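Thread title: Can someone regenerate the structure for this chain?

I was given the following input by a collaborator and told the matching structure tokens would be attached. They weren't. Posting the sequence so someone can regenerate them.
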Amino acid sequence: EPRPPEIVAYARAMLPLALGMLLAGGIIVAVEAGFREAGGLSKVEPGMTAIEFVDKLRDVETGKKVLVVGDSRVGWGFSETDCETGMQAAGLKGFTALNAGRAACSSSDTLRWLLDHFHPMVPGVLAINYSPGGFYQFAPRPLSTSQPSRQVVQDDQIDQYLRQRLATHGKDCKIVFPALWDTAHGRPLPADMSFVSRQQFRGGFYNARIATNDGQPFDPAGYQLDYYTTIIDTIAKDPATAQKRQQWIDLLREASAQGWKVVLVRLPIGHRMAYVEAKLPESLQPKSLASEAGVPFIDYQEDGRLGEVTTLDESHLAPESARRVSHLIGMDVAGRLR
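Best answer:
Regenerated them for you:
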């Protein structure tokens, strides 16, 4: 049976488009394969993006809440659902827990944003996790003062999805094509490492995986210990550290004055990492900060109720340990609110 002329005309009109799409797809595949062969790595956010963070607070701007603030040790190590279960087990109902951990970001910057963003007299708890990097070293990473639209949130999700699957996504052509040229002439990219994938767990926390481009084995604990050894040395020698310490004391006092129930906590880390961080002067340790700011301090590093905990890399809790610690935080929060 002959096809209607309209269908034939439409098929002919669409043929160049279809061929163009096939050609473009082939080029993308070839460039991606070549860039990976050159030693290119994908790169993802090892936790919540700034857009995900602000969007997460959309539904908890009012009402009872427990916000746990910190860097990636919170982002990877605090389970909202297990904290809420702990509060309920201790008889406290109706509170929402929120993981407010941002990877490699100044915790004071996050706390400043939270204090400015929330109505000051809404009842709630601020549990702030002490981490030398988050307290004294990491740089601020700006957050939006307005809620992102649904389109912006979806675009951000697509961006993270593509970053995990395409090493070329988000990279300038001035990086990609010279790498292809150099590799073709026997000059691959130098040894490198990157967070190449992330995983979100039930409970609103993450972890991420680092990979290398040279096939060499990667030691997560060794990497973190070397990294923090440098950080601790820098913090101890930096004249600006004393000012950052005072800023923290002022922030903790301001949060209390706004009506928040503030508690400083320390999530467990590995024994080798604890040894490294113990080299900081006593004045920079969490117990000293809490005492001067007039807020309680709970040290889960030394909490016998937890038993043995497991870390992924001496710095971040493994998921099962994160759940146990979070449940205990919920019970302790309930005890302070009753």
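The mean pLDDT is 92.
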